[in-house]
Design goal:
Blueprint lengths: L7 E4 L5 H12 L3 E6 L3 H13 L3 E6 L5 H15 L4 E4 L14 H22 L8 E6 L12 H21 L4 E8 L5 H5 L6 H9 L8 H12 L10 E4 L5
Parallel strand pairs: 1-2, 1-4, 2-3, 4-5, 5-6, 6-7
Helix pairs in contact: 1-2, 1-8, 3-4, 4-5
The chain binds NADP nicotinamide-adenine-dinucleotide phosphate.
Length: 249
């Protein structure tokens, strides 16, 4: 069923991983999708092709979400192509390990600039484009905001910040009929987790043991929950953190 037919969504960081999974699910539900990417134009364009091959409508747009001028261009180009905006998914994020033992200021600023500043810049810019009917903003957080892995403390703290922003912006934007929710995956198999070396590692086996449903998540698992949060079925939900983790906390 196409519950989101004719809506327009901008998904940040959709060249791969969870963002691409959300884009594909949205397209199945009738959404016209903008897939933002930073460096991976090949991944973004391949996902656009896959969506088009299944009868969906999508475009790929480059833009570094941690830079205000690039964010402005991203939303303007979205408006120029599709003429409206209904859904923003703040998905783009980085998660370099950054333990106290080998702390890197460069990685610290890259993590907060992408994960927190990028979220704020995109949310601020989206307000120029949502119609009087309102909209839905979905912020990707993580189970690590409540149960951090030690060397991921900086990353986990950015997700804690995202959850506070979610609650605050839900209140700030309610009068404009804009709902803001946080979506917290557990461990999901993506290019990002492959790069970290987590897939098929001892850590992977440990995650499977700790997850009641017994496996690592897939981007499609998260896409379905994002589609629910974006839909009118979630009209009475704002300011919440929804966990999608197979029971892992
Ligand atoms: P991923 O496979 O590493 O993909 C990250 C995406 O973010 C890519 O499309 C990348 O674009 C984009 N990106 C990074 N920096 C950007 C920037 N400055 N501007 C625009 N785009 C940027 O990551 P993932 O595993 O799918 O994670 C996606 C989100 O889910 C993140 O917020 C992450 O924290 C969250 N999450 C992931 C997991 C997990 O286990 N995978 C669990 C919980 C939460 P380019 O490749 O084009 O540069």
């Amino acid at each position: 069923m196409e519950k989101l037919k004719n809506k327009v969504a901008l998904i940040t960081g959709a060249s791969k991983g969870i963002g691409a999974g959300i884009a594909k699910e949205f397209a199945l539900q009738g959404v016209r999708v903008v897939l933002n990417y930073n460096q991976d134009s090949i991944g973004a364009n391949e996902t656009v092709k896959e969506i088009e091959n299944h009868g969906g409508e999508a475009i790929a747009l480059q833009g570094d979400i941690s830079k205000a001028d690039e964010v402005e261009r991203l939303f303007l180009e979205t408006q120029n192509v599709f003429g409206r905006l209904d859904i923003l998914v703040n998905n783009a994020g980085v998660f370099p390990p950054n333990s106290l033992g080998s702390f890197s200021e460069i990685d610290f600023y890259r993590t907060i600039n992408t994960n927190i500043l990028g979220n704020i810049l995109c949310t601020k810019e989206s307000l120029k484009y949502f119609s009087a009917l309102g909209g839905s903003i979905i912020n990707l957080t993580s189970v690590q905001s409540k149960n951090p892995i030690p060397e991921m403390a900086v990353y986990a703290s950015t997700k804690g910040a995202i959850e506070v922003l979610t609650m605050a912006y839900a209140k700030e934007l309610a009068a404009k009929n804009i709902r803001v929710n946080a979506l917290a995956p557990g461990a999901v198999e993506t290019e990002g987790t492959h790069t970290r070396g987590w897939f098929k590692s001892d850590f992977h086996k440990q995650i499977e043991r700790m997850t009641p449903l017994g496996r690592m998540g897939q981007p499609a698992d998260i896409g379905k929950v994002a589609a629910f949060l974006a839909s009118d079925d979630a009209l009475w939900i704002t300011g919440e953190r929804i966990t999608a983790s197979g029971g892992l906390h």
